[in-house]
Amino acid sequence: MATTKAPEDAYTAAPFVPEHADLAALREAAAGCRGCPLHRDATRTVFGAGDTDARVMLVGEQPGDQEDRRGRPFVGPAGKLLDRALAEAGIDPGGTYVTNAVKHFKFTRSAPGKRRIHKAPSLRETVACGPWLAAELRLVEPELIVVLGATAGKALLGSSFRVTEVRGTVLEEEIHGRQERLVPTVHPSSVLRADDREAAYRGLVSDLKVAARALM
Ligand code: URA
Predict the structure, then answer these.
(1) Can you tell me which atom of ligand 1 is nearest the CA of 152?
(2) Residue 110 — very low, low, confident or very high, per pLDDT cuts 50/70/90?
(3) Which of 74, 105, 112, 129 shows the smallest number of beta carbons within 10 Å?
(4) Which atom of ligand 1 is nearest to the CA of 72?
(5) 121 CB under 6 A from ligand 1?
(6) Ramachandran bin of 177, using left for φ above 0, alpha for ψ from -120 to 50, beta for the remaining angles
């Protein structure tokens, strides 16, 4: 029997996002999000976490393998590197709110039962997840958003975003009806993959120092 499949551009989290909810209620609702197909293979929704009064919100791409298992963003190797870079730049990692553009882990396997390999979310999946990010921004009201890599940049600033063009600069843009200040930088995973890891790490710290100065 033929099955009907929703068109990809019909993907959206919007019907799952409760109105007038606080962050705890949002997190609970996000656990049941079926706004795109990524919930099918992921273990759980990984919602944002951290200081709800934070001056800085960090936005990554999507949870990785460890985040999917543990239910918190940036608890794996990229998160450890990010915390180190933040501290070195003068931003207390414990005082930030950390989230991702996409709240479910997308992956492939080289063979059944084999290791899960990160797969970048599509633009449609990223846009579908946007209502969660918009709700987090509305509730946390950060003074500054640190944009970690291309997926977060496209989610917040549109598909023409290029991290190499704007990294380490303070941008001012209207996002979801709010005037926001943003500092884009590379994703910490790209530092872990770089040939010259030390140079890539220094670049990340230097961009985060721009964010630290913008908060003074
Ligand atoms: N990479 C991300 O973008 N987010 C995480 O939470 C972990 C790794």
Answers:
(1) 3
(2) confident
(3) 112
(4) 6
(5) no
(6) left
Q: What residue spans define the domains of the chain?
A: 14-214
Tell me the percentage of the chain whose pLDDT exceeds 90. Answer: 94
For tokens 């705890």, what's the residue?
A: 24
Residue type at 113 in one-letter notation: G
pLDDT mean across residues, the chain:
96
C-alpha 208/C-alpha 159 separation (Å) is 23
Q: CATH classification of 14-214, choosing from 3.40.1550.10, 3.40.470.10, 2.70.50.50, 3.40.50.720?
A: 3.40.470.10
105 lines ligand 1 (CB under 6 A): no
**Residue 174: partners with Cβ closer than 8 Å, 6 or more residues away:** 180
Mean per-residue pLDDT, 91-118: 96
**Pairwise CA distance, residues 139 & 205, whole Å:** 28
